[in-house]
Amino acid sequence: MRIDSAAAEAVNLLPKADHPSAFGSVFGVLNRCKSKMGSRTLERWLRQPLLCPEAINKRLDVVQLLKENPGARSALQEGPLKGLPDVDAVVAKISRSSGSGSKGTRGTCSGAGASLTEVWRLYMFTRALAGVTASLLECLCEGGDQVVSEAAEEGGEPRCSYTGALARQKQTLHSTLYEPLRAISAKFERYRHLVEHVVDFDQLPDLVVSPQHDPALAELREERDGLEQEAQRELAKAQSGYGAFAEVRLDSNSQRAFFLRTTRGDDERQLRANNSRVTVLSLQKNGVHFTTDALESISARVGDIDREYVPPLPLPLSLPLSLPLSLSLSLSLSLPLPLPLSLSRTH
Questions:
Q1: Residue 125 · residue 87 · CB < 8 Å
Q2: Helix (H) or strand (E) holding 248
Q3: Average pLDDT, stretch 10-14?
Q4: How far apart, in Å, are the Cα atoms of 228 and each of 185, 242, 250, 279, 291?
Q5: Which is higher by pLDDT, 104 or 324?
Q6: Which of 173, 187, 95 is nearest to 139 (CA)?
Q7: What share of the chain in percent tops pLDDT 90?
Q8: What is the pTM of this model?
């Protein structure tokens, strides 16, 4: 069923712009999700409530089981779901990039298409799946009720059944969340290996492709390393010469790959007196930002290299563009779990 805007407003289903209180709507009271995907799923659940009693009871089974297992619930909320990348946005960007067919230099997608950032965020998401499935397995194994039966088919996966007071709830969680997520995680295993092989982990948090995959990239990396050494020599000259009266550091920002700065904002006059050829860039709270002709040349070339260092991604942009609904629902498991206490089961 779909609830129209008038009905949703009449019952304060969703937050209003003129009533920003966190508890001014049903959504605000219920939303304890740790990810954007979870919040979006909760909103969708409220806008499109279920009518099928069986489907409603399955949702309540999962909520009840997590309510009864605070350890697994806390492990999910404060572990893999906290700070989880918004994979919906990542997949949407990859989808737009794949559909546009536009290419940048050296085979990269141009404009607003996918980049190595999206590849990395999807990688971090797939790594978090292991934590999600581990927490769900802990919940399933609570109380030692698990019973493993024979495989349904030759070569098939063994089916699990459960006994005890929460047997039905565990079976629901197993079939609707745990198994689908475990299968997705297994399918992404090669993707994780590929990213770990391609991304230069030594350069993190900067995301760059390892130069071993392209001779041209290796040359650029070598040149950049040499320029960094030259920048360090410029720093040493300043520290031992005209800037010896102050503490001088090598720094960078979005405009310049390298510049020098002192740690005090009143060093400008002495700096100019000691070396009239320095160029003062700005006076900041953290000191005097300045450069020299040699360092400016080094910085400009490093900037050119960074813009040129855009390798063809050896990663498939035709990744699965949709994940099972169970994956999205699992991200809403941080809903306020006392919910079943105020709801009776639907018959």
A1: yes
A2: strand 248-251
A3: 85
A4: 40, 21, 10, 20, 15
A5: 104
A6: 173
A7: 17
A8: 0.60
The predicted pLDDT at position 326 comes to 32
* 250, 260 contact by CB (below 8 A): yes
pLDDT value of position 110: 39
Contacts (Cβ under 8 Å, ≥6 apart) of 267: 245, 246, 287, 288
Which SS3 state, helix, strand or coil, does residue 108 take?
Answer: coil
Q: Where in the chain is the domain with CATH 1.10.1420.10?
A: 52-213+326-338, 215-308
50-54, 85-89, 342-346: which is most confident? 50-54
The pLDDT of residue 233 is: 95
What is the DSSP track for 134-192? Answer: HHHHHHHHGGG-EEEEEESSTTPPEEEEE-STTHHHHHHHIIIIIHHHHHHHHHTHHHH
**pLDDT value at position 321?**
29
- Span 215-308 CATH architecture: Orthogonal Bundle (1.10)
The confidence score (pLDDT) of residue 320 equals 31
Q: Mean pLDDT throughout 133-150?
A: 73
Give the residues across from 251 on adjacent strands: 259
Residue at 197: amino acid letter:
H
Domain made up of 52-213+326-338: CATH architecture: Orthogonal Bundle (1.10)
Cα gap 330→136, rounded to integer Å: 10
Rounded Cα distance between 297 and 227, Å, is: 10
Q: What angle do CA 136, 138, 144 make, to 5 degrees?
A: 125
Cα–Cα distance, 290 to 43 (Å, whole number): 51
Q: pLDDT (tens digit, 9 = 90+) per residue, 212-237?
A: 777 877 888 889 889 999 999 999 99
